[in-house]
Amino acid sequence: MNKVNILQIGPYPDWDMEALERNFILHPYFTAEDKDAFIEGCAGSIRGVATRGDLGLSRKLIESLPHLEIISVYGVGYDAVDLDAARERNIHVTNTPDVLTKDVADFGVAMMLAASRGIIGAEDWVRSGDWSQKGMYPLKTRVFGKRVGILGLGRIGYEIAKRCTAFMMDIAYSAREKKEFASEWSYIQDPRALAECSDYLFVTVTGGAATKHIVNKAVIESLGPEGMLINVSRASNIDEEALLAALENKT
Q1: pLDDT tier at 207 (50, 70, 90 boundaries)?
Q2: Which CATH class is domain 101-249?
Q3: CA distance 240 to 11
């Protein structure tokens, strides 16, 4: 059986490269110095594209591949792929929705713990020798029993909520509609209202135009200077200018 020609947009880990090289003919777009010339030389043979969530695939590239059948995204997010261009030609777009769900949830909760308990600062305190000169590291904030809001109760948001129950936290969430599986948690649809009643606000919504700056100035103000914002979603979901202003003004 003839191997299918694949355009590879970016590098993959070695363990995945072994399978790709064994099953496909790869055309490494990311190594080409003259990318236009590279595409011109292989476009007619390409039937699939292997890309990453952070790299996506532009309309220009999609339109330059006349026989393209599938765009495979290595990761969960696919907002960097021009979905309209793919849809116009009935090109399949795939992703790996559950491959890192629990890992991201672990990481999000770890950030909450690290920031609340000052773990990074405490490590620096020990490494610098300040502990012997200045004594005990300043006390920080406890996590257990606090209020946590989860903006977007999808796969990752759900896993974060489950982990927060172990800390006996008061959990609320925001989503397009109330979730039957989350009856033990409070449903607050409005992001601003959710932030207002949260000590920690996790952002776990998908990226894209519909959620751009969903965490805006009003949401940040509602969270307040003592609140903690933990974003494990796309950066575009946060109004960074409003966030920077709040940090600078301590509001």
Answers
A1: confident
A2: alpha beta
A3: 29
Both tokens assigned to 217: 């100035």
Upper half-sphere CA count for residue 103 (Cβ side, 13 Å): 6
| Length of the chain (residues) | 251
- Whether the CA torsion 3, 5, 6, 12 is positive or negative: it is positive
Structure tokens at 93: 């777009």
What distance in Å separates the CA atoms of residue 243 and residue 192, rounded to the nearest whole number?
14
Angle at 30 between CA 29 and CA 36, to 5 degrees: 50
Q: Which two tokens stand for residue 59?
A: 């309309």
Sign of CA dihedral 41, 55, 214, 239: negative
Q: Where are the domains of the chain?
A: 4-94, 101-249
- How far is CA 249 from each of CA 85, 145, 183, rounded to the nearest angstrom? 43, 28, 38
- Contact present, 200 and 146 (Cβ < 8 Å): yes
pLDDT at 174 over 90: yes
Q: What's the pTM?
A: 0.86
In one-letter notation, the amino acid at residue 66 is: P
Using one digit for the tens of pLDDT, what is the confidence trace for 21-42?
Answer: 999 999 999 999 999 999 999 9
| In the predicted structure, residue 208 carries a pLDDT above the cut 90 | no
- Give the per-residue pLDDT at 232: 97
What number does CATH give the domain 4-94? Answer: 3.40.50.720
The token duo for 65 is: 């591949």
Cα–Cα separations (whole angstroms), residue 171 to 53, 62, 166, 213, 228? 30, 43, 11, 23, 15
